[in-house]
Amino acid sequence: MYVKICGLSEPEHVAAAVEAGADAIGFVLTASPRQVSPERAAELAALVPDRVLTVGVFRGEDPATVRAAALAAGVRGIQLHGKHPHGDFTELKDLGRTLVRAVDARADLRCGAFDESLLIVDAPRPGSGEPWDWAAVRGRPTGRWLLAGGLDPANVAEAVAAAGPWGVDVSSGVETAPGVKDSALIARFLTAARRAA
Ligand SMILES: O=C(O)c1ccccc1N[C@@H]1O[C@H](COP(=O)(O)O)[C@@H](O)[C@H]1O
User: Fold this and answer.
1) Which of 30, 122, 143, 168 could form a disulfide with 148 if both were Cys (CB 3.0 to 4.6 A apart)?
2) Residue 143 in contact with residue 111, Cβ under 8 Å?
3) Residues recognised as catalytic
4) CB 122 within 8 A of CB 102
5) Is the beta carbon of 9 within 6 A of some atom in ligand 1?
6) pLDDT tens across the length of the chain (197 residues)
């Protein structure tokens, strides 16, 4: 079970996620209570060992803006959330970063359909912490895909059983308030997700 912890903004929480065995760590570089500057993301990314994928999260920005911010942040992955056209992914391919497409259940759920190497199937309101009908996507996504949206340490096993994802992605469910991560919740989520596999 691949696990991504998203929306980190403090070194102690980056360290907690790495220590607990996260496969990927996300820095939100778009409007959000979790937004960090590319410079702050670069400081945090420098603390992450190579085995953990660092991902910059964007939503609606044009490819030139995404390119500049991703390069400044030094992230190895680029997550485009929402209705980015295929052409946005094509324009970013030459960067050699891991491209991640994040969509809700109404979208094309074939990983690779937009030349991405990782797909995230999320709630209609990303980063809201709202659970949704995870079972509705069971059997639909293809390839490497992560389930996101309203997951937390207590429900991740149920969500995995319902949807059958390749991995999971969490932000709100490891926070005590919007944008305030909690190291103990991060560790509990990793443990619960691994057991759910
Ligand atoms: O986390 C945010 O604030 C955010 C903002 C804009 C686009 C994506 C965002 N996060 C993504 O949302 C899911 C996690 O959702 P939840 O909070 O666990 O319900 C994950 O894919 C994040 O990358």
Assistant:
1) 122
2) yes
3) 6, 122
4) yes
5) no
6) 999 999 999 999 999 999 999 999 999 999 999 999 999 999 999 999 999 999 999 999 999 999 999 999 999 999 999 989 999 999 999 999 999 999 999 999 999 999 999 999 999 998 899 999 999 999 999 999 999 999 999 999 999 999 999 999 999 999 999 999 999 999 999 999 999 97
Q: How far is the CA of 8 from the centre of ligand 1 (A)?
A: 11
33 Cα: distance to centroid of ligand 1 (angstroms): 10
Q: Which residue of 8, 59, 81, 145 sits with most ligand 1 atoms within 8 Å of its CB, as the best mutation to test the pocket?
A: 81
CATH number at residue 34: 3.20.20.70
On whether ipTM exceeds 0.90, the answer is yes
Report the C-alpha gap between 78 and 54 in whole angstroms.
9
Global pTM reads: 0.97
CB of 81 sitting under 6 A from ligand 1: yes
Domain span at residue 6 reads 2-196
| Total number of domains constituting the chain | 1
Say if ligand 1 is within 6 A of residue 152 CB.
no
DSSP, res 93: G
CA distances from 100 to 12, 20, 97, 103, 154 (A): 25, 23, 9, 10, 26
The answer, yes or no, to whether any atom of ligand 1 lies below 6 A from the CB of 26, is yes
